[in-house]
Amino acid sequence: MSARTTRTRLFAAATVALAALSLTACEGDGLNTGSPKPASSSASADESTGPSDDAKDDTGSAGSSGSAGKDDASGSGTGSGSGEGSGSGKNTGGDKDSNSGSGSDSDSDLPGKCSASDARITAKNAPRPINHLLLTATNTGSKTCTLPQYPAARFGEAQSVPPVAESSKPQSLTTLASGESGYAGVRLSSGDGSAEGGHEVSTLTIPFEDGSIARAELPSGSVHVDNDLTVTYWQTSAANALEY
User: Fold this and answer.
1) Is the peptide bond before 129 cis (omega within 30 degrees of 0)?
2) DSSP conformation class of 241
3) 3-state class (DSSP) for residue 140
4) 3-state SS string over 217-236?
5) Mind listing the pLDDT tens digit for each residue in 55-106?
6) Between vectors from CA 111 to CA 106 and to CA 113, what angle results, nearest 5°?
7) 145-146 and 112-113: which strand pairing?
8) How far apart are CA 92 and CA 27, in angstroms?
9) pTM listed for this prediction
10) Distance (Å, rounded) from C-alpha 241 to C-alpha 88?
11) Which DSSP category does 47 fall into?
């Protein structure tokens, strides 16, 4: 083999070897592309997620807003920083019961009902209108009492009480302090004598709601009544009692 041929073969082998080395170097560079990120990058990321100094100044210490809804023992809801509870949310706890009461019974302040034992009743002829009686009930007791709505007057042996004139009904019951009087009018008969059932009676009794009965003397010992017999509600004045 000549020297020229030998050099040619050596040159070709060297070229192949260089190409192989070059290829190996390129593959190594590709494998290194997934190398870990520098530590500095994670540090910068941590710094970017943290609150800025300005944010801390505006909201107080980090996370303080979370304590805004925290109630203390009195329910005042205090908090730190921007989470401080407002006064409108204050809860003192244990609201007082408005129905607890003061221990007094309002019914005890109301006057009791009058009885025959503390209400004296008199009957007199009214000056007008004609054929009318004026009944007067006077509280002779020491306490205030309330009269019935109207006198359930029973004349003589009558089995029923006379009707009441509804137009005479006052706004409230007649209440008498000690020594005060209430009044009721009684139409004994028709003015022209046209009503039926006329007769003379000599007694008048008036029962009260507690079952007691008052007796009143009639003027001249007796009066004439007929089917027009009517009474009024008890009134606070004699004038009102005789308007009907």
Assistant:
1) yes
2) H
3) coil
4) CCHHHCEEECCCCEECCCEC
5) 444 444 434 444 443 444 344 444 444 444 444 444 444 444 444 444 444 5
6) 130
7) parallel
8) 76
9) 0.56
10) 61
11) H
